[in-house]
Amino acid sequence: MPTRTGITRQALLEATAELIYQRGITATGVDLIAERAGVTKRTLYQHFRSKDDLVAASLSEQGEVALELFGRAAASRARRTGQPAVLALFDVIERLLAGPMPAGCALLNASLELADPDHPASRAAREKLTARNELVARLLREAGVDDAELAGELALLVDGAFATGGAHRDPSAAARAKRAAAHLIDRYRATAPRALSTPS
Questions:
Q1: Angle between helices 148-168 and 85-98 (to 10 degrees)
Q2: Per-position DSSP letters for 103-122, written without gaps between them
Q3: d(CA 167, CA 91)
Q4: Which of 104, 106, 88 lies closest to 96 in space, CA to CA?
Q5: Which residues contact 107 (CB under 8 A, 6 or more apart)?
Q6: Beta bridge partners of 196
Q7: Separation of CA 61 from chain center
Q8: Following DSSP, what letter does each residue of 148-194 receive, concatenated?
Q9: What is the C-alpha separation between 47 and 6, in angstroms, rounded?
Q10: For the chain, how far is it from start to end, CA to CA, in angstroms?
Q11: What is the pLDDT of residues 110-148, one digit of tens each?
């Protein structure tokens, strides 16, 4: 059973995630976070030393949960459609852009907003973005292609779908990125057939 401390901490993390996605990190103050979480500012600072630490913790937790759900949703979509999960990722992105994430990826948005690469939130966002790139590479291997360069290109398309779709409020950016990803995979299969591994 969650403790009161755990419940309060979770409320702060969720309030921070919601507010920085809607308003940005710089425009979101601790007073607003505390109000949204239903706690005092004093309580906020009892749980987190600074706003920077709170934002970093929020991005880290949000990124962890989102990555797990992202992978599961792609696998589920792949089972229903018969396509590789690495391509089904783009269908998931399109649904996210059309629904709960119209402004794109919170991790990318945070990284782009913060100029200091050593900011705790920048480091947290990069860590989870790297984990997402690793997910793309794993799903590509499951599709029968083990190639780091191609995995990097597909990861770039994933980031681009989120960034372009969010910037223009255009979910169809994900469909265009998916077509580009499929083309890259097909080209790889045609030009490097011996590099293919057999899917398990």
A1: 10
A2: T--HHHHHHHH---TTSHHH
A3: 18
A4: 104
A5: 59, 62, 63, 125, 128, 129, 132
A6: 145
A7: 11
A8: HHHHHHHHHHHHHHHHHHHHHT-THHHHHHHHHHHHHHHHHHHH-GG
A9: 10
A10: 40
A11: 999 999 999 999 999 999 999 999 999 999 999 999 999
